[in-house]
Amino acid sequence: MDTLKPRDAKDVEDALQWALGEGKALEIVGQGSKRAIGRPAQTDLTLDLSGLSGVTLYEPEELVLSAKAGTPLAEIEALVASKNQMLAFEPMNYGPILGGVPERGTIGGALAANLSGPRRIKTGAARDHFLGFSAVSGRGETFKSGGRVVKNVTGYDLCKLMAGSWGTLGVMTEVTIKVLPRCEAETTIIVCGLDESAAVRAMTTGMSLPCEVSGAAHLPAAAAARIPVREIIAPGRALTVLRLEGVEPSVAHRKVALQAALKDFGEIRFCSGIVSRDLWRAIRDVIPFAASRTASDQPLWRISTAPTKGPELGRAIAAGAKAEMIYDWAGGLIWVLLAPADDAGAALVRRAVKACGGHATLIRAPMAQRAALDVLEPQVAGLAALTKRVKDSFDPKAILNPGRMWAGS
Question: What pLDDT, on a 0 to 100 scale, did the predictor assign at position 151?
Fold first, then answer.
C-alpha cells in the first residue's frame, strides 16, 4: 500500500483534499502501535503522521502541554517527568499484547483511542484530559476546538467526540492536554488468595473509603504468576492489589486505614516505590497476556461492565470455554484470554455481556476473524443511526479509516 507522509498540517489538508478529489480512502496511522486493533483497513493509501512530531508548547506552571499529533508518547512522558509531572490518565502501551514494539504510541493515537490505565477509576481517561486540537475533516477542511486552558467552555466540546473515534472523523494535527503533578509516594496493598467474588468485595470496600485509591485490580493465580515483578509473587495464589498515591504522610495514613478495612479478607502484604510502579505498569499493559507469554493467535477481549457484575460475567465466560482473566478498575474492566476458536469466542462473550451488561471489544485475533466479526460492541439501531449521521457530517465520502470500527462505516 502506498504511503503519504505529510510534514505539517498544510500537507495533511492537501493530502485529504487530493484523496477526496480522487475518491481514495486513507488509513490514518501515527507509529502503527494499535494498527492491529479493529477491523482490517479497507483503504487505498496510508497517511503516516509520524512526521508531525514535536512539543509546541509546554507551560508546567499552567499544567498545559501542546504537541503535534505524531509526537511519541514516550517523548512527552519523559519531558513532563523532568518537571515532576505526569499524564494522569496513564495511557496503556499496546505493544506487548499485540506482539509489536513497546513504547511506540503517539499522543494523537492515545487520544484517538481514548486510552487509559488503572488510574481511570480516580482521574478518568484520555478524553478527560483533552483540552483542544486542530484537525482536518474528511471534507478536506481544517477545524479547531477547545483551547489551551483547563476551563474552556466555548462552543461544542468536540474533544469528547474525537476521543475514541479512531481517526474516522478527522485527522488531528496538533493536540493540547492537561498534565498533573507526579505523585511523591506510592504504596500498594496486596491481599493474597481471594477468589473473584471476594476480590471484588475487597476492592469495593477500599473504593468506598476516603482513601483515594488510584488503582484496584485482581490477578487470578495463573495471571499473577506471569507478572514480572518477583517481589510480589505468592506462588499458586491470586493477588488483589490496591494502590495509594500522593505525598508521603498522606499515603502512610491512608495505608493504615486501608489495611484495617481489608484485614479480614486475607493475608496482607505491601510493596512501594519502584516495585509498586513496575507492578502497575504490568497491569496497565496486561503483561500476563502479552503475545510473548501466550500464543499470539489466542483471542484477547476487553470487557467493560459494572464492577459488581465482573465476577458473574467472568464465570459465564469460563463456563463455556477455557479462559483466563484479569480484573482492573475494581472489577469493572475484564481482560479475557480465550483459546483459539473459529469465531474468536465472540458468541460466548457477546452472550455473557448481554446477560450481565456492559460492552466488549475484540483486541487481538487473526486478521480474517477481525474482518468477519463485530470487533466493537454492536450498536442498537438508534445509536447506529446517530453514529452514521455524525460520520457523514465529518466525513461524507468515508475516506478516513472506513470500516475500522464497524462494517460499512
Answer: 54
